[in-house]
Amino acid sequence: MRKLGVFNFISLDGFYKGPNEDISWHRHAEEEAEFSAKNLKSEGILLFGRVTYEMMYSFWPTKMAIESLPEVAEGMNNAEKIVFSKTLKKAEWNNTKLISNNIIEEIKKLKQSPGKDMTILGSGSILTQFAEARLIDEYQFMIDPVVLGKGTQIFKGIREKLDLDLTNTRIFKSGTVLLCYQPK
């Protein structure tokens, strides 16, 4: 059975995006890049909502991404990907499958089938839907030492309490802290 995880960076005040979709506040230094590259080598499937997919697709295949973060760019570009969208007609980024309907049921089927584990990146509305459906097996949050004051909160609109157990932590030299949780 496959596992479904979440990997997101957030501010101290719980935002995963700042105003106007800004993520430039995230401290992605060399140590964090090595961590990301190592995680991408696990060859899991990356899951995105449309907005996150379009943002990732606009950066990772570029010359700038390939030159500045070559291992991460290679992992992102080569990874199998799924984008959830009712408005996209097709997914342009290589190795990407588009799912437009019944996303909860589709993920339930994928989790029950043999294959690669899956990780949601960004994609707050997808994360919230899957969390409420109790489909997520692990939450990994990189907490940046910054307070944004406004933006898009992680778990925005969640209607039910989630009880989580802390399973692992890591402190990066930049001051960013990785917190890993599993549902109780």
Give an overview of the whole structure.
The protein is α/β, with parallel strands linked by helices. The chain has a single domain, classed as Dihydrofolate Reductase, subunit A (3-Layer(aba) Sandwich), CATH 3.40.430.10. The chain contains six helices and ten strands. Strands 5-4-3-6-1-7-10-9 form an eight-stranded mixed beta sheet, sandwiched between helices. A two-stranded antiparallel ribbon has the order 2-8. The relative contact order is 0.26. The model has no long low-confidence stretch (mean pLDDT 91).
Q: Can you tell me the CATH architecture?
A: 3-Layer(aba) Sandwich
CATH superfamily: Dihydrofolate Reductase, subunit A
Reading the helices and strands in chain order gives EEHEHHHEEHEHEEEE
Strand order of the largest sheet: 5-4-3-6-1-7-10-9
Distance between the termini: 19 Å
Q: What is the residue-averaged pLDDT?
A: 91
Q: Number of DSSP strands?
A: 10
Q: Which term fits the overall shape? A: globular
Indicate the structural class.
Answer: alpha/beta
Biggest sheet character: 8 strands, mixed
DSSP helix count? Answer: 6
Q: Hey, roughly how much beta strand do the residues contain? A: 25-35%
Helix content: 25-40%
Task: Evaluate the radius of gyration.
Answer: 16 Å
Which CATH first-tier class would you pick? Alpha Beta
Quaternary state of this entry equals single chain
